[in-house]
Write a structure and sequence with these properties.
The structure is a single chain. This protein is α/β, with parallel strands linked by helices. It folds into two domains: 225 residues, no CATH class; 212 residues, no CATH class. It is built from 14 helices and 15 strands. Strand 1, helix 1 and strand 2 form a beta-alpha-beta unit. Helix 9 runs parallel beside helix 12 and helix 13 packs antiparallel against helix 14. The longest helix is centred in the middle third of the chain and has 27 residues.
Length: 443
């Protein structure tokens, strides 16, 4: 099978993670543009080069397409771009003609512009540093009560609303294309949701018009990469805290159970019971509230034993946002991790991020007729070094992205190498020069 994949941007979770997962199945011929053409925190993607890449693709069976990359230059530029509606419409109409010529199944997603609830403008327009919290409250109250009173300057409110309207109208164009049959699957993503807000309102409007919306963002291309395999895998979800599966995770607007079920279904898999399952999905979910290690928000750790089954299984560790539960990982490492049954671990960022990437990797391994064990091993080493070693432990000891990471992470690295029988060299870099993400490099 031949699959083309256009990422959101050049972060490792968007770029190299997809490559590694596709590499688990050596039957897959995977096409992805050169990383240099994709955007980063400060730079938009080279849209012209990416459109040429898309145009010059050889015949493929499926194309997984991040529409924000083509329309705006990436997910972050979708919030910052000052291009007019007409400029973007002309651009995407050109892309539509290219897609029509490809005779491939198109699995696409576009974001509903998020509303960050803080005065941190790293991924937003400049005025967010002064008015971010107030714009969030304005949006929340406008949706909830219709109250449009705010002390944010009128020109900033107008700019914000115009950007939202532009993106919303572009999404409605995509929805029309969906109705014409262009897309095999089209997803509108809801990133960083609250109960109310203009983003929630826009999602409701799209749903009323027949659109499909999904909580999450960065993992959705991976869920579509999974869906592109178009073969059934039966998954049985088991919650380690079953009495609390109705709680809502940080940055999401649905319960953990609904998030799990939705991610399984979006990945093209089906939910079943233990006996009939191809893969067991264990969810280390939280009691009361989800913790968040980076924000110093604690929660009740896993406090039992975890015994691995003699049946394919994978683990979504979502007790904390953006990092592993140390207690659970320690309990898990008491087992012998047999490649025959182990289909993956993830504790990456939000609950949706964790689930989407985990299920994709598990499905690729399960359906592999030419299984590449080294790719799966690198995937798991990456997740444990990033989600457990770095996010849950080392990151808390760092003040800036610099060379201090290597001695701090070394004890964790040696443990992971021993568990997964890996003897190669590993390096750590900060692709966006910030502590939020680290890239695991294998040499």
């Amino acid at each position: 099978m031949k699959i083309a994949f256009l990422p959101i941007d050049n972060r490792p979770v968007c770029y190299t993670l997809a490559q590694t997962i596709a590499g688990i199945n050596s039957d897959i011929e995977f096409f992805i543009p050169e990383r240099k053409y994709l955007g980063d925190l400060k730079t938009i993607a080279n849209i012209e080069a990416l459109i040429n890449w898309l145009k010059n693709l050889p015949p493929v069976d499926a194309i997984v397409l991040s529409l924000d990359t083509i329309a705006y230059g990436g997910l972050i530029p979708s919030r910052r771009s000052n291009d007019s509606f007409k400029q973007i419409k002309d651009r995407i109409e050109n892309v539509k003609q290219i897609l029509l010529s490809k005779n491939a199944k198109i699995y696409a997603f576009s974001s509903i512009m998020r509303i960050s609830n803080n005065n941190y403008n790293e991924e937003e327009k400049e005025y967010w540093s002064q008015y971010g919290e107030k714009i969030f409250k304005y949006s929340y109250n406008l949706h909830k009560t219709g109250n449009s009173q705010t002390d944010v300057p009128q020109d900033i409110i107008e700019d914000y609303l115009n950007t939202r309207k532009r993106n919303s109208e572009i999404n409605k164009i995509y929805l029309e294309w969906q109705k014409e049959g262009l897309f095999e699957t089209l997803v509108f993503s809801k990133d960083d949701c609250a109960q109310y807000g203009l983003n929630v309102k826009e999602a409701q409007e799209l749903e009323a018009l027949g659109g499909f919306t999904k909580t999450g963002a960065d993992e959705i291309p991976l869920s579509l990469l999974s869906r592109a395999l178009n073969k059934e895998v039966k998954i049985c979800p088991i919650f380690l805290e079953p009495e609390y599966k109705n709680l809502i995770s940080n940055y999401e607007d649905v319960s953990v159970e609904k998030s799990v079920n939705g991610q399984i279904e979006l990945a093209g898999c089906t939910i079943t019971d233990y006996e009939n399952a191809d893969i067991i999905l264990y969810i280390n979910n939280f009691k009361d509230t989800q913790g968040e290690i980076v924000m110093r928000v604690d929660t009740k750790n896993f406090d039992g034993e975890f015994k691995t089954p003699e049946k394919p299984y994978m683990i979504a560790d979502v007790r904390f946002a953006n990092g592993a539960d140390n207690s659970f990982v320690n309990a898990f490492f008491k087992n012998i991790i047999d490649d025959k049954y182990f289909y993956g671990y993830s504790a990456w960022n939000t609950t949706a991020n964790t689930l989407g990437s985990l299920i994709c990797g598990g499905k690729y391994k399960f359906l592999s007729q030419k299984y590449n064990k080294e790719s799966f091993k690198k995937l798991q080493i990456t997740r444990f070094l990033d989600d457990w070693a770095y996010q849950a432990n080392v990151r808390q000891q760092l003040e800036r992205p610099d060379g201090q990471i290597k001695p701090l992470i070394k004890p964790f690295e040696e443990k992971i190498k021993n568990i997964f029988d890996y003897n190669g060299n590993i390096n750590y870099i900060y692709p966006w020069n910030r502590l939020f993400e680290v890239e695991i490099e294998f040499n």
